[in-house]
Amino acid sequence: MQNTTESMDDFEFDILTEIGNIGAGNATTALSQLINAQIDMKVPQVEMLTFTELSEIIGGAETLVAGIMLHLEGDIEGSMLFILESNAARLLVQQLMGMEPASTTSFTEMETSALQEIGNIISGAYVSAISALTNLTINVTVPSLAFDMAGAILSVPAIEFGKLGDKALLIESRFVDMEVDISGYFILIPTLESYSHILKSLGIG
Fold first, then answer.
1. How many angstroms separate the CA atoms of 64 and 81, rounded?
2. For the residues 28-44, what does the mean pLDDT come to?
3. Most distant pair of Cα atoms in the chain: their distance
């Protein structure tokens, strides 16, 4: 693989799509166990996008979102984000935790805690999927939760890793079999060297 995300071929992209599907399966199982109820999560789309395109997919740079961000260390380095549009985040917490909305404009401490736990589970599921498929060691920092405009949240990894590559892997995660259909966005931003490590570990780099 050349030192650019532009050189990724269809087979390599299929591998990353499979990581997304396995991660969604892991997250579904963990969330079902958390609330002791059956839920399902699909991966309707996986794309390599620029940071500007990521904002547009989520609804625009000024869209208010809840973002759970952590850093990857070890054999794979970079950032990982799980983003939900603000209203979707509130609906997801209510659906999964059985909470009635305390407010339509802000999150209570309990709702924030529940959202943090959901983000931890989903992020952990994707890290486990990547680690299991590649047999690479991946350490993660403690996730941080932020409520801000999509453009502001995405600017952090864009500035930090933009000099290494201008694209990120977007995995849409759609929660189904609930009263509402909710989409979240899992964004993996490894360094270009880490992309090479992933593909080499699978014998295709």
1. 15
2. 80
3. 51
